[in-house]
Amino acid sequence: MTFPPTLIVALVGAIPELEMGGSIPLGKALHMSVYSAFFWSLISITLGTIIVFRLLDQIIAFLFKHFPKLHKLVDHHFQKIHTKHNKNFQRWGLGFLILLRILPIPGTGSYTMVALAYLLELPYWPSIFAIFISNLIYGLILSQIIIGAITFIHF
Q1: Backbone phi, then psi, for 71, in 5-degree steps?
Q2: 87 to 74, 81, 91, 92, 139: CA distances (angstroms)
Q3: By C-alpha distance, which of 53, 52, 55, 41 is closest to 10?
Q4: Most buried by CB count within 10 Å: which residue of 7, 62, 81, 119?
């Protein structure tokens, strides 16, 4: 059984740490246009962030209930992150999420932005919108880099 390239790209785009950085080049390798791969990746990561953000309270409650030692460890880490990034958020607003996402730093993917928005207790829909905009910018930049690299190789 073979799966359509759009489905493969969408599924890879929803995987944390792979997201667009893995799905757009994969789409190109599967003979999709870069922009088609970008579109399906953007759709899947947006749906993924909406679902994860919506369910994060239940996920964390489940983990803390079943792994009490994790509660101590994570609670301390949550407080540290909240203290560290709250000042930046107060200064930059939701632009902080956008800026942090589009910087090419490992670990600053969409799901990290969801966790950060959750920790900073940011409003749901404005945070989702900021993450969507950051993915849009990041994906367009990445698409242009891929097109440039392909053009350079074929030159």
Answers
A1: -60, -45
A2: 21, 11, 6, 9, 28
A3: 41
A4: 119
CB atoms within 10 A of CB 18: 16
Question: Which two three-digit tokens encode residue 13?
Answer: 């785009």
What is the per-residue burial (b if ≥16 Cβ within 10 Å, else e) of 109-132? bbbbbbbbbbbbebeeeebbebbb
Q: In angstroms, rounded to a whole number, what is the distance separating the alpha carbons of residues 9 and 23?
A: 5
Is residue 19 a contact partner of residue 41, using CB atoms and an 8 Å limit? Answer: yes
Could you tell me the CA-to-CA distances from 3 to 8, 10, 15, 41 in Å, in that order? 7, 11, 17, 16
Encode pLDDT of 23-72 as tens digits.
999 999 999 999 999 999 999 999 999 999 999 989 888 988 888 888 87
* Cβ partners under 8 Å of residue 75, min gap 6: none
Termini Cα distance of the chain? 37
**Dihedral over Cα of 92, 57, 81, 42: its sign:** negative
